[in-house]
């Protein structure tokens, strides 16, 4: 039997990690790095998703039909989504790339990674090393100190993701942006260079530019399940909007794609915007 996790602080590659017990769940844990919330996992129930943006990613996964999936993850932390997919889609094959080897070792020791394949290394290089048409789903949720790395937002990387995905595959990313959504607009233009079908999920306040927050973006060569996503977003504990079609193209406007020559990281979040953790009642 695995020993109980030990709350505390631990040095990792990108700062200092903190492992905190969730006071409202007996075996749930929050992982933070330098005050920024990275992951929340319930070891007794992997389908219990605390963070709203993670729930939105899971909603997209749930709407992709039935059966196991071949999944690549760029960014793992405590592997909330890989654990969820393992629980909800048995026999799925998953591979996680994470650049922070010390954090991976901490999660493996304290929270366990049984049944999950996690490789330490650069996620972009990891995706580029995969075979053509070998994945059903690619999920990118990779932040360093609250910033989405610019090298993962370029047309060149997007083309690599498209190459690795099967023709009906889906690309899912979590990005963040603030007033006027300048990064999001260019990121949408970037995805459109490889994928004809896009949709995004975000809180109305974020989409109106009233506050900084997460935006989940889905991309595919085939139609996305927009009606199902719209219903799920509207009925969520914290309702979100699903934007697709002409509305999304209007949001994108005349934004230029991001390329390796002008790699653009996402904006630095306002102080403490992702560091406050208030468990749901």
From TrEMBL:
The keyword Endoplasmic reticulum does not apply. SUPFAM superfamilies: S-adenosyl-L-methionine-dependent methyltransferases (SSF53335). Keywords: Polyamine biosynthesis. GO terms for biological process: polyamine biosynthetic process. The keyword Ribosomal protein does not apply. It comes from the Bacteria. PANTHER family: THERMOSPERMINE SYNTHASE ACAULIS5. This is Spermidine synthase-like protein. It comes from Amycolatopsis regifaucium. The lineage of its organism: Bacteria, Bacillati, Actinomycetota, Actinomycetes, Pseudonocardiales.
């Amino acid at each position: 039997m695995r020993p109980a996790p030990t709350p505390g602080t631990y040095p990792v590659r990108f700062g200092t990690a903190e492992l905190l017990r969730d006071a409202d769940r007996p075996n749930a844990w929050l992982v933070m790095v330098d005050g920024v919330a990275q992951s929340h996992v319930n070891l007794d129930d992997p389908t219990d998703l605390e963070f709203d943006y993670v729930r939105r990613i899971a909603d997209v996964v749930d709407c992709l039909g039935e059966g196991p999936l071949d999944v690549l993850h760029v960014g793992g932390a405590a592997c909330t989504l890989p654990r969820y997919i393992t629980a909800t889609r048995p026999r799925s094959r998953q591979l996680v790339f994470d650049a922070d080897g010390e954090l991976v070792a901490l999660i493996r020791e304290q929270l366990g990674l049984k049944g999950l394949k996690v490789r330490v290394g650069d996620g972009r290089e990891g995706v580029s090393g995969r075979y053509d048409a070998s994945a059903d789903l690619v999920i990118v949720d990779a932040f360093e100190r609250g910033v989405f790395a610019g090298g993962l937002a370029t047309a060149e990387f997007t083309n690599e993701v498209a190459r690795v995905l099967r023709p009906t595959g889906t690309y899912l990313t979590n990005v963040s942006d603030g007033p006027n959504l300048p990064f999001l607009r260019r990121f949408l233009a970037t995805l459109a260079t490889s994928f004809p079908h896009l949709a995004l999920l975000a809180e109305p306040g974020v989409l109106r530019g009233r506050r900084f927050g997460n935006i989940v973006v889905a991309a595919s060569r085939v139609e996305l399940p927009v009606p199902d996503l719209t219903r799920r977003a509207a009925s969520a504990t914290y309702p979100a909007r699903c934007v697709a079609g002409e509305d999304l193209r209007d949001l994108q406007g005349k934004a230029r794609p991001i390329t390796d020559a002008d790699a653009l990281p996402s904006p630095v979040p306002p102080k403490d915007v992702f560091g406050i953790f208030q468990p749901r009642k």
